Amino acid sequence: MSSFSPEADAAVTPVEIRRLGPDRATVDALATILVETVAGGGSVSFMHPLAPEKAAAFWQGSLDAAARGERVVLGAYDGPLLVGTVTLVTGLPENQPHRAEIAKMMTRASHRGRGIGTALLKAAEAIAAGEGRWLLVLDTASVEGAAGFYAGLGWQEAGEIPDFALTPDGRMSGTRVYWKRLG
Description:
Blueprint: E1 3-4, E2 16-19, H1 24-39, H2 52-67, E3 71-78, E4 81-89, E5 99-107, H3 116-130, E6 135-141, H4 147-152, E7 156-166, E8 172-181
Parallel strand pairs: 5-6
Antiparallel strand pairs: 1-2, 2-3, 3-4, 4-5, 6-8, 7-8
Helix pairs in contact: 1-2
């Protein structure tokens, strides 16, 4: 397993970042984070209310894809508690071996604002660079999305697509597309 721990300071909760496997406890913990994120308005492809079984099925599929080498699912641990996650999608078409996508960036509400998202994103960027993936892309909702977070970490906005998807409560939202070259 790969791990990454940010240096502790007043603004950062020390966490351990590691690759996640498809064991039941991990699937259940990820499902809890996903259900909580959607209930809190996070636009991560699901509608509210999200059934825990549906969330668990999503994560089981995602972790199975990770086992096939199509993605890397990272988790941030505060002691024994899984408090955040991000996915690095690497299973892209053969004409795109130089890039990857960032997806499903989530931090538990109880741990937001403590640098965990930054630690997760930096760990995903380091893994991508280590695999020769020097161009990353992601998208975030225009309505209550994390645009400022990504811009603050050096991501460049490519543009906004209007009316891209529904928010978890059914409102229409655009999406902002971001990119970043590594190294």
